[in-house]
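PROTEIN DESIGN WORKSHEET
SECTION A - STRUCTURE
LENGTH: 117
C-ALPHA CELLS:
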C-alpha cells in the first residue's frame, strides 16, 4: 500500500485494510501473479470508470439476474435488459472514451515513474 500510494497518490484504497468501499473479493486475477512470478514484488491498482449512478447499475444487474432466471422472457424484453446492462458499464460517447484513455495513460505513466525511482 505504501508503494501504491507513492506511485498513484494518497487516494488509493484497499479492500484488505478497510479503506475501500468495495467488499473483499475472491478469485481476483491479480492474485495469479504470485504463482506466475513468486519472486516478484507486485504493486497494482484497479481502475474504476464511472458510468451511471450506483442505483442504475444495481437495477441493471438485477434485471440481468432476473433474465438469467427467466430464459423464456420475450426477445424484446431480453434485448432491453441486455442494453441496460451494457449502458451501465459502457458509455458510448467520445468524451467518456477520452476520459478512460486519459486516466489509464496517467496511471501507466505514474507506474513507469514509480518503477524508475
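SECTION B - SEQUENCE
RESIDUE ASSIGNMENT:
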Amino acid at each position: 500500500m505504501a508503494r501504491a500510494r507513492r506511485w498513484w497518490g494518497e487516494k488509493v484504497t484497499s479492500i484488505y485494510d478497510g479503506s475501500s468501499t468495495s467488499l473483499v473479493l475472491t478469485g481476483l486475477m491479480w492474485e495469479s501473479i504470485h504463482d506466475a512470478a513468486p519472486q516478484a514484488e507486485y504493486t497494482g491498482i484497479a481502475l474504476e470508470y464511472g458510468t451511471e449512478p450506483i442505483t442504475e447499475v444495481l437495477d441493471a444487474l438485477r434485471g440481468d439476474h432476473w433474465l438469467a432466471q427467466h430464459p423464456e422472457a420475450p426477445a424484446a424484453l431480453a434485448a432491453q435488459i441486455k442494453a441496460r446492462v451494457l449502458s451501465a458499464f459502457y458509455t458510448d460517447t467520445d468524451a467518456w472514451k477520452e476520459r478512460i484513455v486519459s486516466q489509464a495513460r496517467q496511471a501507466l505513466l505514474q507506474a513507469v515513474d514509480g518503477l524508475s525511482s
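SECTION C - NOTES
The longest helix spans residues 94-116.
The CA atoms of residues 34 and 40 lie 8 Å apart.
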